[in-house]
């Protein structure tokens, strides 16, 4: 199943809100934003993200909405003791104001169980989003695969006939040797020229790469990196065919083929 690297997921549980946005990238690269009080959970969160998303840029944000606060009695007592001793030493008679004590508060921090629950819920939604995008991507890829299949078939049909090439080789060799030219040198030159016009091997390799590409697309865990490598090899074969082809129709077909391969390359960049 093709999974896109583009997706979005969010979840809110208890008073914790989590957002995940993913984009295409060659590797897994996560940017994690957390409240300072939850910074100790960063490694665990990264582990959860990498286990499910595996590849792509991940923008992760988690924050606490309307966090519960409670008085920090310990710090307040220390402050009160300090103020009381200061008043006594300075001989001050005024009451201790309440305002400074309002700063002695702390948020109620959720435990890992709650944080993990909301993170997994957001990850699942992001993955679902990537799968939905992947379905659309697969439909488009299959359309171009069909076009490439037809182009390869047409090029193969117009490839030079091997028996014809051999016959021409023997005829030309016989003609040159009658004129007392060096047979070995003539043979080398003719072989070079005839091989330049023969792109059968390139078409066969191109077709083999193409079949492997289709096989990976249909697999449960398609690899975007593997697909990109195969497209690179297919592009190389297409360039060689284009260089060797003496037929204008074949040249036009390879132009169309390279255009389709380039479109596929752009699409595959977003496959996980």
In short:
The protein contains eight helices and six strands; from the N terminus they run βββαββαβαααααα. By secondary structure, the protein is of the alpha+beta class. The chain folds into three domains: 80 residues, 2-Layer Sandwich (Ribosomal Protein S5, domain 2); 37 residues; 138 residues, Butyryl-CoA Dehydrogenase, subunit A, domain 3.
- Total number of domains: 3
Order of strands, main sheet, comes to: 1-2-4-3
Secondary-structure element sequence? EEEHEEHEHHHHHH
Report the CATH topology name of the largest domain.
Butyryl-CoA Dehydrogenase, subunit A, domain 3
Strand content: 5-15%
Secondary structure tally: strands: 6
Mean pLDDT: 83
CATH architecture of the largest domain: Up-down Bundle
Shape: rod-shaped
Helical amount among residues, as a percent range?
55-70%
Q: What characterizes the major β-sheet?
A: 4 strands, mixed
- Uncertain stretches of 5 or more adjacent residues: none
Polypeptide structure, described:
With 272 residues, the chain is of the alpha+beta class. It has 3 domains: 7-67 and 112-130, Ribosomal Protein S5, domain 2 (2-Layer Sandwich); 70-106; 131-268, Butyryl-CoA Dehydrogenase, subunit A, domain 3. Helices cover 62% and strands 13% of the residues. The protein has helices at residues 42-53, 73-90, 112-157, 162-177, 183-197, 200-218, 224-244, 248-268, and strands spanning 7-13, 16-23, 28-33, 56-64, 69-71, 105-107. The strands form 2 sheets. It has a 4-stranded mixed beta sheet with strand order 1-2-4-3. Helix 4 (162-177) packs antiparallel against helix 5 and helix 6 (200-218) runs antiparallel to helix 7 (224-244).
